[in-house]
Amino acid sequence: MRKLSSPTSPKKTVAKSSSTAVVSIIMGSQSDWPVMQAASALLKSFAVAHEVKIVSAHRTPKRLVEFADKAAGRGIRIIIAGAGGAAHLPGMTAALTHLPVLGVPVPSTVLGGVDALHSIVQMPRGIPVATFAIGEHGAANAALHAISILALSDAALSKKLRAFREKQTSSVPLSPKASA
Ligand code: RP5
Known about the structure:
- The chain is α/β, with parallel strands linked by helices.
- The protein is built from seven helices and five strands.
- Helix 3 (61-71) packs across helix 4.
- The structure holds 5-O-phosphono-beta-D-ribofuranose.
């Protein structure tokens, strides 16, 4: 069986953190990376060890089965799965593993990600996928959600998350500045 490959652009992140990864970011295509890099960047800023891989439900189904079968045994605790169009990756991953799957709809077709959103969110009862907003904001929020799950059993991460939220809150001004 072919080894799991990684997207070409995030090699640095993968090389640095994949050995102890607790979060796996998977995506259906290299073309999803510009959106999904927001999840990787967020995890990196919290020093959460993660890996990044291309796993396509349609083009590499055997890779998907191998990935999902082995993820928990490799120490992965949460999977963030991004896909566009028919977007079966998050749902099929959730069908193959008991790990929490966070789904990110990628706006990669003429339907602008609404197709992927509907596909990812409409899971049958019994196989949940936590579904996030379309695009980069959804990818970033999926990472933050993964961090809050991990923070439940990691006091240092919980402290960092609370500091992040407090900084975010204090950065919002009470009144808008006059426009130029
Ligand atoms: C989906 O099809 C991928 O997740 C991607 O969003 C979309 C287009 O893929 P490419 O044709 O760019 O490889 O499976």
